[in-house]
Write a structure and sequence with these properties.
219 residues; Arc Repressor Mutant, subunit A
Length: 219
Amino acid sequence: MDSDNVLRELSYGRNIVMSYLTNTMLKMLFTIVSNAIREKRELVVVDESKYVARYIPLELVESILVVNNIEEACNEENLFSIVFMPRDLRKLTYCRARDVLVFTKPIRIHNFREYVKYYLEKVAEGNEYVLKSPTKGVTYRFKINKGKLELIEKPAGILGQAYEIIKNTMSMYGDTTVRDIVVILTKEIGVDKKEARKILVDLARRGYIRVHKGRITLA
């Protein structure tokens, strides 16, 4: 799956992206808007907090309708409604639009079972982000390059080799121990145990694996 397909997944149905990364969500929003315009979809952006109006690219200014009223954006069933940082999510309860995408800070949400929830986080190191939905059981990793989202399947170089080995090992044996993976990496990649442990630390720091009580799981 490429980045356009991931963004298209967010663009159809009812979805909520939750994060404290306001700028990253804005970049996602503008990319989704550009894709929707290319597909000649009717859309409206609800901008109650004035974030979108402040940062909208010049090439999009005349192409999209920006309003500050959720009710105005939700009256038509066939309208693609994008809501950025709403003040009161409860107004969306009565939304008639079939396709709704909401960007908001992490909050407790009640009575929104028809919405698929996604969580956006930044990886500790580098220009990498993780978008995941526990509801759908999907996790996407991407970076932003010159305003465009690029999916990342695995890290580059020796980290990528190690990650593939770990995935293959776990597909056969399930969760495994740090000790076992260290031994496997020394044999498969030809590094010593110290370097193998450093590789695991780097993979954990970048969010590819989790280490807990001596056992490894995929993130």
